[in-house]
Protein backbone atom coordinates (compact mmCIF):
# COMPACT_ATOMS: atom_id res chain seq x y z
CA UNK A 1 0.00 0.00 0.00
CA UNK A 2 1.32 3.45 -0.91
CA UNK A 3 1.25 6.07 1.80
CA UNK A 4 -1.03 9.00 1.05
CA UNK A 5 -2.94 11.66 2.94
CA UNK A 6 -6.27 9.93 2.27
CA UNK A 7 -8.20 7.02 3.71
CA UNK A 8 -6.96 3.68 2.43
CA UNK A 9 -7.67 -0.02 2.83
CA UNK A 10 -5.55 -2.84 1.45
CA UNK A 11 -7.54 -5.45 -0.56
CA UNK A 12 -5.89 -8.23 1.45
CA UNK A 13 -7.23 -6.82 4.71
CA UNK A 14 -10.37 -8.90 5.14
CA UNK A 15 -10.53 -9.11 8.93
CA UNK A 16 -13.83 -7.99 10.44
CA UNK A 17 -12.68 -5.46 13.01
CA UNK A 18 -14.66 -2.77 14.77
CA UNK A 19 -12.57 0.12 16.09
CA UNK A 20 -13.47 2.36 19.02
CA UNK A 21 -11.59 5.66 19.13
CA UNK A 22 -11.26 8.11 22.00
CA UNK A 23 -10.07 11.58 21.05
CA UNK A 24 -8.31 14.61 22.49
CA UNK A 25 -11.53 16.61 22.22
CA UNK A 26 -13.45 13.99 24.21
CA UNK A 27 -15.33 12.49 21.28
CA UNK A 28 -15.91 8.73 21.28
CA UNK A 29 -16.31 7.12 17.86
CA UNK A 30 -16.92 3.74 16.29
CA UNK A 31 -15.57 2.62 12.91
CA UNK A 32 -16.62 -0.63 11.25
CA UNK A 33 -13.45 -1.36 9.26
CA UNK A 34 -15.21 -4.35 7.63
CA UNK A 35 -18.37 -2.50 6.59
CA UNK A 36 -19.56 -1.39 3.17
CA UNK A 37 -18.11 2.02 3.99
CA UNK A 38 -15.02 1.11 6.06
CA UNK A 39 -14.26 4.78 6.83
CA UNK A 40 -17.67 5.82 8.14
CA UNK A 41 -17.44 7.17 11.69
CA UNK A 42 -20.28 7.16 14.18
CA UNK A 43 -20.16 9.44 17.21
CA UNK A 44 -21.22 7.61 20.36
CA UNK A 45 -20.84 10.71 22.55
CA UNK A 46 -22.97 13.86 22.11
CA UNK A 47 -20.54 16.50 20.86
CA UNK A 48 -22.43 19.48 22.27
CA UNK A 49 -21.63 18.49 25.88
CA UNK A 50 -17.85 18.34 25.35
CA UNK A 51 -15.40 20.97 26.54
CA UNK A 52 -11.64 21.42 26.94
CA UNK A 53 -11.52 19.10 29.95
CA UNK A 54 -13.35 16.23 28.23
CA UNK A 55 -10.17 14.68 26.80
CA UNK A 56 -10.23 10.86 26.94
CA UNK A 57 -7.18 9.85 28.95
CA UNK A 58 -7.87 6.14 29.40
CA UNK A 59 -9.81 3.36 27.66
CA UNK A 60 -9.93 -0.29 28.72
CA UNK A 61 -12.18 -3.30 28.29
CA UNK A 62 -14.40 -3.82 31.32
CA UNK A 63 -14.76 -7.60 31.16
CA UNK A 64 -13.24 -10.71 29.63
CA UNK A 65 -15.98 -10.91 26.98
CA UNK A 66 -15.04 -7.41 25.78
CA UNK A 67 -18.65 -6.27 25.82
CA UNK A 68 -17.92 -3.26 28.06
CA UNK A 69 -15.55 -0.36 27.52
CA UNK A 70 -14.38 1.75 30.45
CA UNK A 71 -13.67 5.36 29.50
CA UNK A 72 -11.76 7.82 31.69
CA UNK A 73 -11.47 11.56 31.08
CA UNK A 74 -9.33 14.47 32.18
CA UNK A 75 -12.32 15.96 34.02
CA UNK A 76 -12.40 12.92 36.37
CA UNK A 77 -15.47 11.41 34.71
CA UNK A 78 -15.72 7.66 34.13
CA UNK A 79 -18.18 6.11 31.69
CA UNK A 80 -19.10 2.45 31.20
CA UNK A 81 -20.18 1.80 27.61
CA UNK A 82 -21.95 -1.43 26.61
CA UNK A 83 -21.51 -1.96 22.89
CA UNK A 84 -24.08 -4.78 22.72
CA UNK A 85 -26.72 -2.25 23.83
CA UNK A 86 -24.90 0.62 22.12
CA UNK A 87 -25.40 2.87 25.10
CA UNK A 88 -23.76 4.13 28.27
CA UNK A 89 -24.86 2.09 31.28
CA UNK A 90 -23.02 4.10 33.95
CA UNK A 91 -21.47 7.53 34.27
CA UNK A 92 -19.89 9.01 37.40
CA UNK A 93 -17.27 11.47 38.59
CA UNK A 94 -14.50 10.34 40.90
CA UNK A 95 -11.18 11.50 42.33
CA UNK A 96 -9.46 14.87 42.22
CA UNK A 97 -7.28 14.51 39.11
CA UNK A 98 -7.43 13.12 35.58
CA UNK A 99 -7.98 9.38 35.16
CA UNK A 100 -4.84 7.45 34.10
CA UNK A 101 -5.95 3.88 34.73
CA UNK A 102 -9.12 1.80 34.74
CA UNK A 103 -10.05 -1.82 35.31
CA UNK A 104 -12.51 -4.16 36.95
CA UNK A 105 -11.74 -6.36 39.95
CA UNK A 106 -14.36 -8.60 41.57
CA UNK A 107 -17.09 -6.71 39.67
CA UNK A 108 -15.82 -3.40 41.12
CA UNK A 109 -14.38 -0.65 38.94
CA UNK A 110 -10.83 0.40 39.86
CA UNK A 111 -9.90 4.00 39.06
CA UNK A 112 -6.39 5.47 39.18
CA UNK A 113 -5.79 9.23 39.19
CA UNK A 114 -2.69 11.15 38.15
CA UNK A 115 -2.09 12.32 41.72
CA UNK A 116 -1.58 8.69 42.77
CA UNK A 117 -4.94 8.07 44.44
CA UNK A 118 -6.55 4.70 43.58
CA UNK A 119 -10.21 4.04 44.34
CA UNK A 120 -12.07 0.74 44.23
CA UNK A 121 -15.68 1.72 43.64
CA UNK A 122 -17.73 -0.28 46.16
CA UNK A 123 -21.06 0.20 47.91
CA UNK A 124 -21.61 2.01 50.22
CA UNK A 125 -18.11 3.56 50.38
CA UNK A 126 -15.20 3.22 47.93
CA UNK A 127 -11.84 1.84 49.07
CA UNK A 128 -9.15 4.51 48.71
CA UNK A 129 -5.37 4.24 48.93
CA UNK A 130 -2.35 6.08 47.52
CA UNK A 131 0.34 4.59 45.30
CA UNK A 132 2.49 7.75 45.21
CA UNK A 133 2.54 10.96 43.19
CA UNK A 134 3.28 11.39 39.46
CA UNK A 135 1.31 8.31 38.43
CA UNK A 136 1.26 7.88 34.65
CA UNK A 137 -0.36 4.50 34.10
CA UNK A 138 -2.26 1.84 36.03
CA UNK A 139 -3.31 -1.53 34.66
CA UNK A 140 -4.96 -4.68 36.04
CA UNK A 141 -3.82 -8.19 35.24
CA UNK A 142 -6.16 -9.97 32.78
CA UNK A 143 -5.25 -13.36 34.29
CA UNK A 144 -5.61 -12.30 37.93
CA UNK A 145 -7.90 -9.33 38.54
CA UNK A 146 -6.60 -8.90 42.10
CA UNK A 147 -3.20 -7.78 40.76
CA UNK A 148 -2.44 -4.24 39.65
CA UNK A 149 0.72 -2.62 38.28
CA UNK A 150 1.59 1.07 38.47
CA UNK A 151 4.26 3.19 36.81
CA UNK A 152 5.11 6.86 36.68
CA UNK A 153 7.77 9.54 36.69
CA UNK A 154 10.75 9.81 39.05
CA UNK A 155 12.37 7.07 41.11
CA UNK A 156 9.56 6.96 43.70
CA UNK A 157 7.16 5.82 40.97
CA UNK A 158 9.24 2.94 39.64
CA UNK A 159 7.25 -0.19 38.74
CA UNK A 160 5.20 -1.65 41.60
CA UNK A 161 2.93 -4.69 41.73
CA UNK A 162 -0.05 -4.37 44.09
CA UNK A 163 -2.57 -6.71 45.70
CA UNK A 164 -5.96 -5.01 45.44
CA UNK A 165 -7.48 -7.11 48.21
CA UNK A 166 -4.95 -5.97 50.81
CA UNK A 167 -3.76 -2.76 49.09
CA UNK A 168 -0.19 -3.94 49.75
CA UNK A 169 2.87 -3.94 47.48
CA UNK A 170 3.85 -7.42 46.28
CA UNK A 171 6.85 -6.38 44.17
CA UNK A 172 8.89 -3.22 43.76
CA UNK A 173 11.27 -2.97 40.83
CA UNK A 174 14.82 -1.78 41.23
CA UNK A 175 16.47 0.72 38.94
CA UNK A 176 19.32 -0.33 36.66
CA UNK A 177 22.88 0.08 37.87
CA UNK A 178 24.29 3.56 38.30
CA UNK A 179 26.50 5.10 35.63
CA UNK A 180 29.40 7.15 37.00
CA UNK A 181 27.65 6.98 40.38
CA UNK A 182 24.62 8.73 38.90
CA UNK A 183 21.11 7.33 39.26
CA UNK A 184 19.47 6.60 35.90
CA UNK A 185 16.30 8.64 35.26
CA UNK A 186 12.94 6.86 35.53
CA UNK A 187 9.85 7.73 33.52
CA UNK A 188 7.58 4.71 33.04
CA UNK A 189 4.75 6.22 31.04
CA UNK A 190 3.11 2.88 30.14
CA UNK A 191 3.06 -0.55 31.77
CA UNK A 192 1.47 -3.88 30.78
CA UNK A 193 1.16 -7.42 32.07
CA UNK A 194 2.78 -9.97 29.76
CA UNK A 195 1.36 -12.68 31.99
CA UNK A 196 0.57 -13.03 35.68
CA UNK A 197 4.24 -12.80 36.68
CA UNK A 198 5.91 -10.79 33.92
CA UNK A 199 5.55 -7.00 33.71
CA UNK A 200 6.80 -4.73 30.93
CA UNK A 201 7.30 -0.98 30.91
CA UNK A 202 8.30 1.63 28.34
CA UNK A 203 9.72 5.09 28.88
CA UNK A 204 10.19 8.51 27.34
CA UNK A 205 13.85 8.02 28.20
CA UNK A 206 14.17 5.42 25.45
CA UNK A 207 13.96 2.06 27.19
CA UNK A 208 11.64 -0.95 27.24
CA UNK A 209 12.13 -3.24 30.25
CA UNK A 210 10.80 -6.61 31.36
CA UNK A 211 10.51 -7.61 35.04
CA UNK A 212 9.94 -11.06 36.54
CA UNK A 213 8.11 -10.75 39.85
CA UNK A 214 8.80 -14.36 40.90
CA UNK A 215 12.57 -14.29 41.35
CA UNK A 216 14.74 -12.53 43.91
CA UNK A 217 16.15 -10.14 41.29
CA UNK A 218 14.23 -6.88 41.14
CA UNK A 219 16.15 -5.39 38.24
CA UNK A 220 14.97 -5.97 34.64
CA UNK A 221 15.53 -9.49 33.31
CA UNK A 222 15.40 -8.19 29.72
CA UNK A 223 15.65 -4.66 28.39
CA UNK A 224 16.16 -2.55 25.31
CA UNK A 225 17.79 0.87 25.60
CA UNK A 226 18.22 3.29 22.73
CA UNK A 227 21.88 4.32 22.73
CA UNK A 228 22.40 5.73 19.23
CA UNK A 229 22.38 9.55 19.46
CA UNK A 230 21.20 9.74 15.83
CA UNK A 231 18.28 7.40 16.50
CA UNK A 232 17.23 8.34 20.02
CA UNK A 233 13.85 6.79 20.76
CA UNK A 234 11.21 7.96 23.18
CA UNK A 235 8.50 5.36 23.76
CA UNK A 236 4.94 6.52 24.32
CA UNK A 237 2.71 3.41 24.63
CA UNK A 238 2.98 -0.34 25.03
CA UNK A 239 1.05 -3.55 24.29
CA UNK A 240 1.81 -7.26 24.58
CA UNK A 241 0.71 -10.55 23.06
CA UNK A 242 2.39 -13.87 23.66
CA UNK A 243 6.18 -13.51 23.53
CA UNK A 244 6.04 -10.10 21.84
CA UNK A 245 5.93 -6.50 22.98
CA UNK A 246 4.77 -3.66 20.75
CA UNK A 247 5.84 -0.11 21.59
CA UNK A 248 4.83 3.15 19.99
CA UNK A 249 7.34 6.01 19.77
CA UNK A 250 7.20 9.78 19.49
CA UNK A 251 9.06 10.07 16.18
CA UNK A 252 9.88 6.69 14.64
CA UNK A 253 6.57 4.84 14.36
CA UNK A 254 6.26 1.61 16.33
CA UNK A 255 8.62 -1.25 17.19
CA UNK A 256 8.17 -4.92 18.06
CA UNK A 257 10.34 -6.85 20.54
CA UNK A 258 10.74 -10.51 21.41
CA UNK A 259 10.81 -10.77 25.21
CA UNK A 260 13.24 -13.71 24.99
CA UNK A 261 15.91 -11.45 23.48
CA UNK A 262 15.32 -7.72 23.67
CA UNK A 263 18.71 -6.29 22.74
CA UNK A 264 17.28 -5.30 19.37
CA UNK A 265 13.82 -4.83 17.92
CA UNK A 266 12.50 -7.41 15.46
CA UNK A 267 10.00 -5.28 13.51
CA UNK A 268 9.49 -1.63 12.59
CA UNK A 269 6.06 -0.29 11.67
CA UNK A 270 6.11 2.76 9.40
CA UNK A 271 3.69 5.30 7.98
CA UNK A 272 3.37 7.59 11.02
CA UNK A 273 4.08 11.32 11.01
CA UNK A 274 3.69 12.01 14.71
CA UNK A 275 3.60 10.47 18.16
CA UNK A 276 1.86 7.11 18.43
CA UNK A 277 -0.60 7.73 21.25
CA UNK A 278 -2.15 4.27 21.51
CA UNK A 279 -1.23 0.75 20.43
CA UNK A 280 -3.26 -2.44 20.83
CA UNK A 281 -3.16 -6.01 19.53
CA UNK A 282 -6.16 -8.00 18.34
CA UNK A 283 -7.09 -11.29 20.00
CA UNK A 284 -5.25 -13.34 17.36
CA UNK A 285 -2.02 -11.37 17.68
CA UNK A 286 -1.91 -10.76 13.93
CA UNK A 287 -2.96 -7.11 13.75
CA UNK A 288 -1.96 -3.88 15.49
CA UNK A 289 -4.39 -1.04 16.09
CA UNK A 290 -2.75 2.36 16.54
CA UNK A 291 -3.76 5.97 17.01
CA UNK A 292 -1.42 8.83 16.11
CA UNK A 293 -1.26 12.59 16.54
CA UNK A 294 -1.40 12.94 12.75
CA UNK A 295 -5.13 12.16 13.25
CA UNK A 296 -5.02 8.72 11.63
CA UNK A 297 -6.14 5.39 13.01
CA UNK A 298 -4.14 2.55 11.47
CA UNK A 299 -4.11 -1.24 11.28
CA UNK A 300 -0.80 -3.00 10.60
CA UNK A 301 -0.13 -6.67 9.99
CA UNK A 302 1.87 -7.56 13.10
CA UNK A 303 4.26 -10.05 11.49
CA UNK A 304 4.66 -8.66 7.97
CA UNK A 305 4.56 -5.02 9.24
CA UNK A 306 2.40 -4.04 6.24
CA UNK A 307 0.00 -1.12 6.60
CA UNK A 308 -3.44 -2.58 5.83
CA UNK A 309 -5.86 0.17 6.80
CA UNK A 310 -5.87 3.81 7.79
CA UNK A 311 -8.70 6.20 8.47
CA UNK A 312 -8.56 9.94 9.09
CA UNK A 313 -10.44 11.17 12.16
CA UNK A 314 -11.05 14.87 12.71
CA UNK A 315 -9.82 14.88 16.31
CA UNK A 316 -6.44 13.64 17.50
CA UNK A 317 -6.93 10.07 18.77
CA UNK A 318 -5.67 9.37 22.27
CA UNK A 319 -6.84 5.76 22.65
CA UNK A 320 -7.92 3.00 20.27
CA UNK A 321 -9.58 -0.34 21.03
CA UNK A 322 -10.34 -3.05 18.49
CA UNK A 323 -13.00 -5.75 18.69
CA UNK A 324 -13.19 -8.76 16.41
CA UNK A 325 -16.52 -9.20 14.64
CA UNK A 326 -16.55 -12.86 15.71
CA UNK A 327 -16.47 -11.75 19.35
CA UNK A 328 -19.33 -9.37 18.68
CA UNK A 329 -21.38 -12.06 16.92
CA UNK A 330 -20.81 -14.67 19.64
CA UNK A 331 -21.87 -12.18 22.31
CA UNK A 332 -25.03 -11.34 20.38
CA UNK A 333 -25.82 -15.04 20.13
CA UNK A 334 -25.46 -15.38 23.90
CA UNK A 335 -27.78 -12.41 24.34
CA UNK A 336 -30.52 -14.13 22.35
CA UNK A 337 -30.10 -12.44 18.97
CA UNK A 338 -31.55 -14.71 16.28
CA UNK A 339 -29.49 -15.75 13.27
CA UNK A 340 -30.12 -17.96 10.26
CA UNK A 341 -28.19 -20.77 11.94
CA UNK A 342 -30.83 -20.95 14.68
CA UNK A 343 -33.72 -21.57 12.27
CA UNK A 344 -34.79 -25.19 11.83
CA UNK A 345 -36.97 -26.37 8.94
CA UNK A 346 -39.40 -29.05 10.11
CA UNK A 347 -40.90 -31.43 7.55
CA UNK A 348 -42.99 -34.62 7.65
CA UNK A 349 -41.49 -38.06 7.40
CA UNK A 350 -42.51 -38.39 3.74
CA UNK A 351 -40.75 -35.12 2.94
CA UNK A 352 -43.97 -33.14 2.33
CA UNK A 353 -44.95 -29.80 3.83
CA UNK A 354 -48.71 -29.19 4.41
CA UNK A 355 -48.42 -25.40 4.00
CA UNK A 356 -46.62 -25.71 0.67
CA UNK A 357 -49.05 -28.39 -0.55
CA UNK A 358 -52.04 -26.17 0.25
CA UNK A 359 -50.45 -23.15 -1.42
CA UNK A 360 -49.66 -25.00 -4.64
CA UNK A 361 -53.13 -26.60 -4.78
CA UNK A 362 -54.75 -23.14 -4.87
CA UNK A 363 -52.53 -21.84 -7.68
CA UNK A 364 -54.04 -21.57 -11.14
CA UNK A 365 -52.78 -23.87 -13.85
CA UNK A 366 -50.87 -22.07 -16.61
CA UNK A 367 -51.97 -23.30 -20.03
TrEMBL record:
| Record region (Disordered) | 326-367
User: Mind telling me which InterPro entries this protein's record contains?
Assistant: WD40/YVTN_repeat-like_dom_sf, WD40_repeat_dom_sf, WD40_rpt, WDR74/Nsa1
Which portions of this protein are annotated as coiled-coil regions? none
Instruction: Indicate the transmembrane segments per the record.
Output: none
Matching entries from SMART domains are given as: WD40 (SM00320)
What's one GO BP annotation on this UniProt entry? ribosomal large subunit biogenesis
Q: Which GO CC terms are listed, alphabetically?
A: nucleolus; preribosome, large subunit precursor
Which SUPFAM superfamilies would you find in this protein's record?
WD40 repeat-like
Where does the source fall among the domains of life? Eukaryota
Q: What is this protein called?
A: WD repeat-containing protein 74
